[in-house]
Design a protein that fits this description.
By secondary structure, the chain is an alpha/beta fold. It is built from 13 helices and 16 strands. It folds into two domains: about 5-20 and about 160-370, no CATH class; about 30-130, no CATH class. Helix 1 packs across helix 4.
Length: about 375
């Protein structure tokens, strides 16, 4: 049974979690889905230096000795040493943040390449699930806020229905307070917040908005910067005013906020400068003594057991201190499906109850671990 006193503080990555095709960098939905699938296809290869340099010029994405695992597509590495197509190309093509766009362009036709052709049906099936229903109205607001146009001119869902359905569930059925943070590494936050705002006004023709406990939205952008030395964090508002500079204070600000939905821009440059190491990624704090709040982060790029380049840095707040301790990958794994969930985009697309079920599971697991550990 859900703890009526516990506030849920839900953190959502943007790309491949809340939306697939963005409105900021104009990556088409076809290219976005292809790029995502390339991260689910694992295998191994022995790249020579010459082959590394030629990757960007060949029709094939990978050398001839590429061997795809039978388990693909899958979220996690199927065997030690396996690398996804996405990660192999990322390593050799992305040298500065702006190169990420080149990577997505390179992988944007993945299911039309020799390596990805066997996944073409999977691609087509999930793309079709995202088509905006013909019977649904497409007002100017709906077209601008809820849809994106594909390369074929067809309209597709922008914010994924499973995410919107979760908001309605939280408002109408969850027996407790909640807060939603859209945590991006780019400029997508305002577009997502505007879409959510229109949804809460009942303007979405496909997903019902909550009728009670409608959450408020703060559209003003917040930023969370990281540095290697003290103060480690700087949390600021749109005017550059410093709101907090330590882990516990930021954690408490989110816990105590009366606003229902906000957007936070995390520090991509810092993560990139640290070679995408998990310890430099988006911080996710938890307090093992705090039974009144449960933070849960959803992101598709969480793979502690692989190369360590995942996007979440799980940190345990220290007792009677404003400091927090970064957990090792091994320790962080013990809190999976309690404080964080590796978002499965294919399931988010195919199952509109995905987020509701995942949140309920995390609440249950929190209770089993912290509230009633002997039950």
């Amino acid at each position: 049974m859900e703890n009526k006193n516990r506030k849920l503080v839900l953190h959502f990555d943007a790309r491949n979690t809340v939306f697939l095709a963005d409105k900021c960098y104009r990556l088409t939905i076809e290219k976005a889905l292809n790029t995502y699938l390339s991260g689910l296809v694992w295998g191994e290869t022995a790249l020579t230096e010459e082959e590394k340099e030629s990757l960007s010029n060949e029709i094939r994405l990978l050398p001839d000795d590429w061997s795809c695992s039978e388990e693909s597509p899958c979220l996690r590495s199927p065997f030690p040493g396996a690398k996804s197509v996405y990660k192999i190309l990322e390593k050799h093509l992305v040298h500065i943040p702006s190169d990420r766009g080149k990577l997505r362009e390179r992988l944007g036709h993945f299911t039309q390449t020799p390596e990805g052709l066997i996944f073409a049906d999977l691609y087509s099936n999930h793309l079709n699930m995202l088509v905006w229903p013909k019977e649904a109205s497409v007002s100017d607001v709906a077209a601008e806020r809820f849809t994106v146009k594909g390369e074929d001119g067809v309209r597709y869902h922008y914010v994924l229905p499973a995410f919107l359905k979760l908001i309605t569930y939280l408002a109408e059925q969850y027996q407790g307070e909640f807060m939603v943070l859209i945590r991006t590494y780019g400029k997508d936050g305002p577009y997502i917040l505007r879409a959510i705002s229109s949804f809460l006004q009942g303007l979405h023709p496909c997903v019902r908005a909550p009728l009670i406990n409608v959450p408020s939205i703060d559209h003003r952008p917040l930023k969370l910067k990281r540095v290697l030395g003290a103060p480690f964090y700087t949390y600021t508002n749109e005017d550059g005013e410093v709101l907090a500079q330590d882990a516990r204070t930021i954690y408490q600000l989110w816990n105590d906020s009366s606003v229902g939905i906000i957007g936070v821009v995390d520090d991509f440059n810092f993560w990139h400068e640290q070679n995408y190491d998990y310890s430099a990624a988006k911080p996710l704090w938890f307090d093992p003594e705090d039974m009144e709040h449960q933070h849960i982060l959803f992101d598709d790029n969480i793979r502690f057991e692989d190369d360590g380049s995942n996007v979440v840095n799980v940190q345990e707040l220290q007792k009677d201190s404003n400091l927090a301790r970064s957990l090792s990958p091994e320790d962080a794994l013990s809190f999976e499906n309690i404080f964080y969930v590796q978002a499965d985009l294919l399931k988010i697309i195919s199952d509109t109850d995905y987020f509701v079920n995942q949140v309920q599971n995390c609440v249950k697991n929190f209770n089993n671990k912290f509230v009633n550990p002997s039950a």
